[in-house]
Amino acid sequence: MSQKNNCEFCQIIDKKAEAKRVFEDEKALAILSPHPCCAGHILLMPKEHFSIIEQVPDYLIAHLSKIVNKISIAVFEILQAKGTNVLIQNGVAAGQKTNHFMIHIIPRKENDGLDFQWQPKQLNQEEMSTIELKLKEESKGIGDFKKQEKKSVKLDKEIEKIDKEENYLIKQLNRIP
Known about the structure:
The protein is α+β, with helices and mostly antiparallel strands. It contains 5 helices and 5 strands; from the N terminus they run ααβββαββαα.
């Protein structure tokens, strides 16, 4: 069986499993989390199966980012949130529990008991410089983004030609010296 057939979120996308859908378009689905950390915890995922962010095409990440922004606005307005955490758990070591890439949108309120704080690690200048050089070298190719393939559009009817004799605006433009 393929990963898609075994994925509980692909089952939700294909409407073979129930979920509280809050947004859907041709590329993405947002649902209320079945295991929320708070009221209004939303999961946004691509409809196509990808396990981790590195597999998701750039154009789809851009599309998901736009949706995150709009959903966050809705969370502020509708749920009276005072903030949001936008979280990607990318890989098991990062806390990813499911094999389908998703973005968590978590409404926040003052003193809500959720704690995403960590203690900063103290690195010496040599460690920081080594990490900086390695990342700088690896990131030289950033900017070569994968674009979505363009699909040709077929029109159902022929485009009507504008008759210059009958179009008032074109007549007026023709009069301008």
